[in-house]
Amino acid sequence: MSQPTPETPVTEIKRPRGIYLLPNLFTTAALFAGFYGVLAAMNGRYEAAAVAIFVAMILDGLDGRVARMTHTESEFGVQYDSLSDMVSFGVAPGLIMYQWTLSGLGKAGWLAAFVYTAGAALRLARFNVQVGSIDKRYFMGLPSPSAAAVTMGLVWIGTDLGLDPATLELPAFVLTLGAGLLMVSNFLFHSFKKIDLNGKVPFVVVTVVMLGFGLAYLQTPAMVFGGFLIYALSGPTLAIVRWRRRRRRHEPDAGSGG
User: Fold this and answer.
1) CA angle 178, 183, 188 (to 5 degrees)
2) What digits encode the pLDDT tens for the residues 52-93?
3) Any bridge partners for residue 139, and if so which?
4) What are the φ and ψ backbone dihedral angles of 251, each rounded to 5 degrees?
5) Other CB atoms within 10 A of residue 246 CB
6) Per-residue model confidence as pLDDT tens digits over 212-239
7) Are the C-beta atoms of residues 88 and 148 closer than 8 Å to each other?
8) What is the DSSP string of 199-253?
9) Which residues lie closer than 8 Å to 152 by C-beta, 6 or more apart?
């Protein structure tokens, strides 16, 4: 008499999980803004192209905040946001700068655009693997949105003033190449994540902020470009200051005898 065979266990089929809609809508909108910036540059509408990248910056800043506020953070959203950043702040600014003026430099122009794009890719990859292991007060390397803002700020101010792009080939080359290298540097840049917005500040701070808003309204391209350029230079500047302080601490006193 044959023994009864045990029933074969039924393998439970796991259905693929869905994705959160709200934060990913902002990420998709940022991706679209970057894509639109490239299309606008291809049609010679460089001011619209530059503004589109700044719109992508705003949307990129909102998606993470919306996810945290609505408790809809996910690993999918993190990866999707990184891919969107690569397009909007890596590929798009490099192509826009090349189309605007770097193409006149020949091989040097596309080399600068490629270094910028590759720098953005490396910056994003390094950021993804270092999350949680570095001081949240600082970014290591220039953040890709800030690098995009510096390069697109030059495009915006140049088109706003009606300047011939050919006259800005050298500044554009230096700025694009420099932004690409700063993204992969070890310079520390303030993240401003530890600023206490609920705390009290001197009255003069409020006055300065009001003046800043007024100047930004009157000369938006110049203020945006100048602000992000100062931020991009802050990393190397602070590194030099720290290096000089360490050097002074290790120098022997001039009056001490040996």
Assistant:
1) 110
2) 999 999 999 888 888 888 888 888 888 899 999 999 999 999
3) 189
4) -75, 140
5) 10
6) 767 666 678 888 899 899 999 999 998 9
7) yes
8) S---HHHHHHHHHHHHHHHHSHHHHHHHHHHHHHHHHHHHHHHHHHHHHHHHSPP
9) 49, 50, 53, 54, 93, 96
The token duo for 93 is 């600014």
Residues written for the chain: 258
Q: Are 47 and 160 in contact (CB under 8 A)?
A: yes
Tens digit of each residue's pLDDT (9 = 90 or more) over 153-189:
999 999 999 999 999 999 999 999 999 999 999 998 8
The token duo for 181 is 């290298």
Per the listing, tokens 């917005």 go with: 197
Q: Which token pair is 106?
A: 């020949």
Question: For the whole prediction, is pTM greater than 0.90?
Answer: no
